Amino acid sequence: VQLVESGGGLVQPGGSLRLSCAASGFRFSSVIMSWYRQAPGKEREFVATIGPTGGVTHYADSVKGRFTISRDNAKNTLYLQMNSLKPEDTAVYYCKKVPDSWGQGTQVTVSS
Prior knowledge:
Blueprint: E1 2-6, E2 9-11, E3 17-24, E4 33-38, E5 45-50, E6 57-59, E7 67-72, E8 77-82, E9 91-97, E10 101-102, E11 106-110
Parallel strand pairs: 2-11
Antiparallel strand pairs: 1-3, 3-8, 4-5, 4-9, 5-6, 7-8, 9-10, 9-11
C-alpha cells in the first residue's frame, strides 16, 4: 500500500487549496478513504471520509460546508477541496485507507 499526498502549501485566510492523494498497491475503488489532520501540539483529528463509489461522504463539523472530499477511481486518486480556509485549518493533512494505512502527510499553512 502506498499513499502519497500533495497540494499543500501556504495560503491566505479565505483562500483555497486542493489536496490530492495518489494511491497504489491495493484495489482503490473498493475501499473507504478518509482525510485527517494534525495541528502542532494536537492529536490527529478526522476531517472527512468517502465511500468506495463516492456516493457517501461525511465531514467533521469544523469543515462542513467549506471542504469537499471526492475521488476518481479511474485515477486511483483521493481529493480534498478546501475553501474559505481559516488559520485554525493549519495542520499536516493525511490521507488514510480505512482502517489502517496512512500517507506521509502534506503541510497546509493558512496565514496572512
